[in-house]
Structures are given as C-alpha cells and as structure tokens.
Amino acid sequence: MPELVLESNGRTWTLDPSRTYALGRDPQGDVVLDDARVSWRHATISFNGHSWVIVDHGSTNGTFVQGQRIHHLELSSDTALNLGNATDGPRVTLTGVGAAAPQAHPGQAHQAQQPHQPYAAQGAQGANAGWAQQ
C-alpha cells in the first residue's frame, strides 16, 4: 500500500494507508494547524483502497485546491491544499501519491519531532503507531 508524505509549516509526516488522519486545530488531531481560519476538526485524509482522499468535514472556511473549494477529493501526485482561505490559508502539500513504499514494523516508526505533546507522552505504541513524522 502506498504511503503519503504530508508537509505543512516546516513539518513532514509520512502517512500510513492503514489509518485515517485528522487535520484541524484540535490538539488531539494527527496534524494540528494552529490558525483561526482552520476548523477544530477540519478534514481527514485516508486511503480508500484505491487512492488517497481528503474529505472536508463541513469546515467553516473551507478546503481549497488551486483556488477551488472542495468537499471530497481524490488526491493526485503533488497536491497542494490551502485550509481556511483559498490564497493564504495554511498550506498542506501532499506527495508520493500512488508510490509504493516499504512497510515499517510497529514500534519502529521514525519520529524526529513530536507533532504535539499529548501524543509524545503515549510513546511509539500509542496514538503515533503506524505513522512517522520526519
């Protein structure tokens, strides 16, 4: 199954297709974007068995690709999203769509920097198992 690399605000995450990732301002989410224009639980990214998709969960200010508001989108290689504003909202870049990658063994995911404190306290077998931030 193909991994997906997500980049935002100088951070990089490698997403595992076996789970869903929450994006938003919620500090318990997987990718936390601290911007007032981003909803608490803004969107999710997941692999549906055929492709990676992003689903906007009724966010107040929207999710945009090339200036167009989207609600559900099948991702293609090198997709750039803006959350909360079409031109200057937080940018999320997704790469590696459709590329096969080696599978990490549970507990061996590489994490150079913790995305936020609640997960840091849980360790590799906690909420971070199955994904890596590089």
UniProtKB/TrEMBL annotation:
Q: Tell me the segments the record calls region Disordered.
A: 97-134
Is Metal-binding given among the entry's keywords?
no
Q: Which Gene3D superfamilies match?
A: 2.60.200.20
Give the FHA domain ranges: 21-70
Which named protein is this?
FHA domain-containing protein
Pfam family of this protein, just one?
A: FHA
Q: Where is the composition biased (Low complexity)?
A: 98-134
Task: Give start-end of the signal peptide.
Answer: none
Q: Which InterPro entries match?
A: Cell_Proc_Reg/RNA_Proc, FHA_dom, SMAD_FHA_dom_sf
Keywords, A to Z, come to: Phosphoprotein
